[in-house]
Amino acid sequence: MGGVEAPIGVFDSGIGGLSVLAALMQALPHERFMYLGDTARLPYGTKSAQTVARYAVQAAEALVRQGVKCLVVACNTAASVGLDAVRLRVGGLPVVGVIEPGAQAACAATTTGHIAVIATEATVRGGAYERAILARRPDATVRQLPAQLLVALAEEGLVDGPVAEAVVTYYLGALFAQDPPDTLVLGCTHFPALAPTIRAVVGPNISIVDSALTTAAAVREQLLAAGIARTAGSASLQFMATDGPERFARVGSHFLGRSIDARRVELIDL
Ligand code: DGL
To answer: What global pTM score does this model have?
Structure first.
């Protein structure tokens, strides 16, 4: 296991996980981060569980080779169907996925126990959110909806306006028209970018849960418990992508909330 000075490895199928990285950087301001976006093989959300698990293990191995002290699976799809395979592969290294913290946040937010989850097809098929929520709150009712088109909208920066509103309404309009859930989990890294549009469609009384903050808190807790948190010194960021550093930097900047220099994105092969 890497020591205090080793970086934290974060990976996603692409750039959406940069929203999780932003939360991690806030919660852990002295850490060194190494982010890997498997942009060449995005989306994971439409692929089979076996393929996603294989890709996730390859991404994890690439980060382990860089000597990371902890791994954050900042992709709901990979965390949903690939977490066990990743844990098995990396031995004792702490591995945090976004599903458990998201389920925890949903259970904390709900009053009625009626929870909806929107995610990619593969995440919904894997059922990990439902299992994680029911493990904490067995009386909950969980509705899972695949909403794959929202990934494309977020990638295009089409996060508000009539097209985004129409697509969000297509997925969520009927569910929230009558007897709605009181909590909606954004079970995909790309969906927080659409949160204001989603809010406009579901109304003001629904709790919208984004797992980024609870994931960052879980990582902080694990590092402190293991005695490997870096608590002084300046932060650093390193980016790797399997395709298109230019696009990674351009689109990724919106998800990270700060600009990314394409020349600082290393192109790698998995
Ligand atoms: N990162 C994926 C997730 O959170 C969304 C994009 C994809 O389908 O690869 O599920």
So the answer is: 0.94
